[in-house]
Write a structure and sequence with these properties.
This protein is an all-alpha fold and 513 residues long. 61% of the residues lie in helices and 2% in strands. The chain contains 21 helices and two strands. The chain has a two-stranded antiparallel sheet. The longest helix has 29 residues. The chain is globular.
C-alpha cells in the first residue's frame, strides 16, 4: 500500500488525469481563440446554456441559426476566426482583441439544437470571468471533463489481468487530434473520451465478472460514461451501442447474463436507460437548424456512397492531426507515425488466437469504413457533403482500444526483449505529439508558406498565445517527456498481483450462474 493509503488504480487515474489534463490545457492556451472547428457556435451555445437558454429561439426559416442572449464578450466571438480560418498562410495576428463587455446582446449559433449537457459544464467560467480569460477557462474546463473520461478508459485498460499491451495500445488512441480538440470548446472531444471509457470499463467488468473479482466499480464507471456519452452529440447513441456491442462480442454474453438479476446491475442499467431516454427526447424535440448547403449537387445514394468510400483514407487524416478549420493538415511525418501504429495494431489484433477478438476488430474496422457513407447519405440533400474524420473518431478510439484488449493474449516481456522496442516507440510517439504541436504553433504564430520560415517564429512572430509560444512549447515537451517516462516505467515494472476474488456471497453465486 502506498503512503497515502490510496488504491493503486486511483493513483494511476490521478497520474493519467494530471498528464493529459496538462497537455489539453496547454493546447487550450496555445490555439488561437476560435481556431478549433465550429468553436464560435459551441462557445455561444455554452454561454447561453449556463444562463438558462437550453436551445434558444430558432430562426423563422429552415437553415437559420438559433438566437440567444449572451454577454457581448461571448456573442462577438464569431468574428474572431474569420480573418485566418481557411487560409493557413495568414497568422492569428489578424484576430481582433476580445473585449470584456458584459452587456447583453443577441447572438446566433448553429449548435442551438445540440444537447445542453456538455455546454452546462464548459460554459461555467463565463459566469464569473470575462473576455479572453473566460473563453480560455471554458476551454480548459471542457478539456478536463474530456480528460476525466480518457483517464477512466486508460485506467480500466491498465486494470485488466494482462494489462500491458491494452494500456500501451490504448494510449495510441490519444492522438494529437484528440488533444487538440480537447483544448477547444467542442463536445466532439467528450464524445471521443466517453466512448473509449464505456468500452474499456465494460471490458474490465466482463473480465472480472468471469473471474469472480471485484467488478462493481468498473461497471459503475461504464454506466456513468454511457450516460454522459448518450447526451453528448446526435451520433453519440450510435457510438454507445457499438461500444457496448464490441465489448460483448469480445467477451461473450455469459458475464452479463450471470449478473443480470442483481439489483446493482439493474440500477446501473436503469441509469443508462434514463440517460438514453432523455437523449432521445431531446433529439425528437430539437428543431433542424441545418443550412441548405446541398443544393445543386448529385445527392443520389450511390453517388454519395462512392464519393465517401473514395475519401476513406483522406478522412483518416482527421483521426490524427487537423489543426484548424480543415485548412491545416498536420505534418506528414505525424500522419505516417500514427498510420503505421494503427495499422500495425489492427494486423496484430487480427492475428490473435481468440476468434471472438478477431471478429470484434473486424466488426469495428468494417463499421469505421461503412458508417460514414451511411450517415452522410440522408444528410447530403439538405446539408451537402460535410463529413470530417473527427466525426467518427470516437469509434476509432474504441477500435484502437479493442486492438489492445485483443492483444492481451500476447506474451511480451517488456523488462527484457521488449524494452528497446518500447523505448523506440515511445520516442516516436513523443516526437509525433511534439511535432504536431509546434507545427500548429508555426501555423498561427507566422502562418504556413511554401518556403521554410521556422526562423521567423523567433525573429518576427506575428501572434503570441498567453505566456508566449516558446514557454508553452517547452512546457508541452516537458509534460510529454514525463508522461513517456511514467508509461515506460509502468510497462517495464513487474505485473501487479491479480485482483483478489470477491468474497461477497451474492457476487460469488452470480459468477457461477
Amino acid at each position: 500500500m502506498n503512503p497515502l493509503s490510496l488504491p493503486p488504480w486511483f493513483l494511476r487515474f490521478l497520474a493519467i488525469f494530471a498528464i493529459l489534463g496538462l497537455l489539453t490545457s496547454i493546447w487550450a492556451l496555445a490555439s488561437p481563440l476560435m481556431s478549433v472547428p465550429d468553436e464560435p457556435a459551441h462557445t455561444v451555445k455554452a454561454g447561453a446554456v449556463v444562463r438558462g437558454q437550453l436551445r434558444g429561439e430558432p430562426g423563422a426559416n429552415q437553415g437559420d441559426r438559433a438566437q440567444v442572449l449572451v454577454p457581448a464578450f461571448v456573442g462577438t466571438v464569431d468574428g474572431l476566426q474569420t480573418c485566418f480560418a481557411w487560409n493557413p498562410a495568414v497568422s492569428a495576428g489578424c484576430s481582433p482583441t476580445l473585449s470584456d463587455d458584459v452587456s447583453e446582446l443577441k447572438a446566433y449559433t448553429s449548435a442551438g439544437n445540440y444537447n445542453p449537457m456538455y455546454y452546462a459544464v464548459a460554459g461555467l467560467p463565463s459566469l464569473f470571468l470575462t473576455g479572453a480569460k473566460a473563453i480560455y477557462a471554458m476551454r480548459i474546463v471542457g478539456g478536463l471533463l474530456s480528460v476525466a473520461f480518457l483517464a477512466v478508459a486508460l485506467t480500466a485498460l491498465a486494470s485488466l489481468q494482462r494489462w500491458k499491451l491494452p494500456l500501451f495500445v490504448g494510449s495510441i488512441a490519444v492522438t494529437p487530434m484528440v488533444l487538440f480538440l480537447s483544448g477547444g470548446v467542442n463536445p466532439n472531444s467528450l464524445e471521443i473520451a466517453a466512448s473509449m471509457a464505456v468500452f474499456s470499463a465494460l471490458c474490465l467488468s466482463w473480465e472480472r465478472i468471469a473471474s469472480g473479482a471485484h467488478w462493481r466499480l468498473p461497471l459503475a464507471a461504464a454506466a456513468i460514461s454511457a450516460a454522459v456519452l448518450a447526451n453528448t452529440r446526435a451520433a453519440s447513441l450510435l457510438w454507445l451501442a457499438l461500444a457496448v456491442a464490441a465489448s460483448l462480442l469480445m467477451f461473450g454474453l455469459r458475464p452479463l447474463v450471470s449478473v443480470l438479476r442483481l439489483r446493482f446491475v439493474q440500477a446501473m442499467a436503469f441509469v443508462v436507460a434514463v440517460a438514453c431516454g432523455l437523449a432521445v427526447l431531446w433529439l425528437k424535440s430539437a428543431d433542424s437548424l441545418q443550412s441548405l448547403m446541398g443544393a445543386g449537387i448529385d445527392t443520389s445514394p450511390a453517388r454519395i456512397a462512392a464519393i465517401m468510400l473514395d475519401k476513406t483514407f483522406d478522412f483518416a487524416a482527421g483521426y490524427v492531426s487537423y489543426l484548424g478549420w480543415l485548412d491545416t493538415l498536420g505534418p506528414s511525418g505525424v500522419l505516417t507515425v500514427w498510420a503505421a501504429l494503427i495499422i500495425g495494431a489492427i494486423v496484430a489484433a487480427l492475428s490473435v488466437p481468440s476468434r471472438s477478438a478477431r471478429l470484434t476488430i473486424a466488426f469495428l474496422v468494417a463499421a469505421i469504413i461503412v458508417l460514414p457513407p451511411v450517415l452522410q447519405i440522408p444528410l447530403a440533400k439538405e446539408v451537402g457533403i460535410i463529413w470530417q474524420g473527427r466525426y467518427i473518431l470516437a469509434l476509432v478510439a474504441v477500435m484502437i482500444a479493442a486492438c489492445g484488449v485483443a492483444m492481451r493474449s500476447f506474451d511480451i516481456d517488456f523488462r527484457r526483449t521488449g524494452r528497446r522496442a518500447l523505448s523506440v516507440v515511445l520516442a516516436i510517439l513523443v516526437f509525433g505529439h511534439f511535432y504536431s504541436f509546434i507545427y500548429g504553433m508555426r501555423r498561427y504564430v507566422i502562418g504556413l508558406h511554401d518556403e521554410s520560415n521556422w526562423r521567423d517564429m523567433l525573429t518576427a512572430p506575428q501572434w503570441q498565445p498567453p505566456f508566449g509560444w516558446i514557454p508553452l512549447t517547452v512546457a508541452y515537451l516537458a509534460v510529454l517527456f514525463v508522461g513517456a517516462v511514467l508509461l515506460y516505467r509502468t510497462m517495464t515494472a513487474r505485473n501487479p498481483v491479480s485482483p483478489a476474488p470477491s468474497t461477497t456471497p451474492m457476487e460469488v453465486r452470480a459468477s457461477n450462474v
